[in-house]
Model the fold of this input.
Amino acid sequence: EPISPIEIDAHGASVQMRSNPPLKDENRVTYYELLVRDTGELSLCRYERTKGGDRQQITAEITREVLLRLAGDFAAAADE
Done:
């Protein structure tokens, strides 16, 4: 799942990115969310929202390949 910026907060010095597009099926939507702050803090979470339900954090299976793709997406977004 490629990620792209959804919010850049210059004042708060942070970037929020999400899977774009998220994975969807009949009953749920899942996506990664990456938050980067200028303090060096990095947060990577996976979320799921079921039809008619609230967003919940779920277990993310991150392989080396997925991590490298996320890093590439982040670098590309930084160049924009």
Remarks:
- The beta strands are 3-9, 14-19, 23-24, 28-37, 42-50, 55-58.
- The chain has a mean pLDDT of 88.
